[in-house]
Amino acid sequence: MSDFLYRTKGDKVIWTIVIFLSVVSLLAVYSATGSLAYRERGGHTEYYLLKQLMVLVLGLLIIYFAHRVNYTIYSRVAQIGFLISIPLLVYTLAFGSHINEASRWIRLPIINLTFQTSDVAKLAIFMYVSRQLSKKQHVINDLKKGFLPIIIPVGVICVLIMPANMSTALLLGASCMILCFIGRVPVKFLVSMVVLSLATILLIIMLAQIFGFKMRTETWGKRIEHFFNKDDAETPYQVQQANIAIAGGGLLGKGPGNSTQRNFLPHAYSDYIFATIIEEYGIFGAFLILTAYMILLLRCIRIYRKCPYAFGAFLAVGLSVTLVIQALTNMAVNVGVFPVTGVTLPMVSMGGSSVIFTSLAIGIILSVARNVEEMEGKQAEKERIAKAMAAGEYYGDEEEEEEEEE
């Protein structure tokens, strides 16, 4: 165990945040799924708790092993991941499992498990964009040589995700734009791409309605209409129940396991888990979770500033930006600031593939942090030896070993 802890490197603050969010996840999922497990599992109220515990333990193991890998290897994997993502997304659109009127999952044979292919695509495209940004810094101001080779793959992935999951496609596109901005892409290119993206979305929606493509355009329209229409009679059921849960939470909440709206709130364990947390832990608990994500972003910005290599810097900040944007979006939906979406709260909502790929992303961030930490240690050792030599106090490795033996 001591050897395991000794080999655990990287940013200790990020590790602490991961453990904190995992504990919050167990408490919130257990509370939100108690009644569901009792009904569906014959009284075994701990079923989903144990399932989430196993997923989180697997996630922690993935973080550990991913952070032990040199992050430069992920640069080599990026292109392969991007190329694999395209047929996976196409297969999902054509043959994916339909859940809540959306084809977002594919079912693995034999083991009979489902996972969201968009999770694979998100991780792959961020590694790919980070790789491309690091390699094209010398031509980043050139539209054809610098910007287009970076943004076209992003557009392809977003278009393939959009028919089944518009919110994920928009968040992915926005996160990639932010990463490109950090990577010194000219603002005029980014603005032009935003305008072109909006025009493309409108065109795809029009074509879908004309030719009858399988897209959730009606659902998107209703969600946006209900968001801007403040008539209580038109407010979606899940929004009403989330508002009741938040109003009942107050400053300190009702206490762990004392939520009442968990029995009425749809997806209280995933999409609306933040509303459940506010009801049980109040505004104070919600503030702690928001602070945890903000600290995660700040620590990753610190890694970005300290990493001497472009790929590692872009990788750390890019992955953190997408995790924090997803978290903020989930919170905004829960409190009624954004229209209803199917975005989960990273490392907190109950899930399988989402927790696994979020863990992999955090492991990659910690891999960059570990390498930065090791380089700082070597630099500090060189400076110590240089000062000792200047003061005449350094006698070489052999004499140091003799002194240690004595």
Describe, in plain words, how this protein is organized in 3D:
The structure is a single chain. The chain has helices at about 1-5, 10-40, 45-70, 70-95, 115-135, 145-160, 165-180, 185-210, 215-230, 235-250, 275-305, 310-335, 355-390, 395-405, and strands spanning about 95-100, 100-110, 115. The two termini are about 30 Å apart. It has about 400 residues and is mainly α. About 70% of the residues lie in helices and about 5% in strands. It has 14 helices and three strands. Mean pLDDT is about 85; it is low at about 400-405. It has one domain (about 10-375). Helix 3 runs parallel beside helix 13 (about 355-390). A hairpin with a 2-residue loop joins strand 1 (about 95-100) and strand 2. The radius of gyration is 24 Å and the shape is globular. It has a three-stranded antiparallel sheet with strand order 1-2-3.
Shape: globular
Strand order of the largest sheet: 1-2-3
Ends distance: 30 Å
Work out the oligomeric state of the chains in this entry: single chain
Structural class: mainly alpha
Work out the helix count: 14
Membrane topology: Multi-pass membrane protein
Organism: Chitinophaga agrisoli
GO molecular function, one term: lipid-linked peptidoglycan transporter activity
EC number: 2.4.99.28
Structure keywords:
14 helices; FtsW/RodA; mainly alpha; 3-stranded antiparallel beta sheet; transmembrane; 406 residues; disordered C terminus; transmembrane helix
Quick overview of this protein structure:
It is found in: Membrane. By secondary structure, the chain is mostly helical.
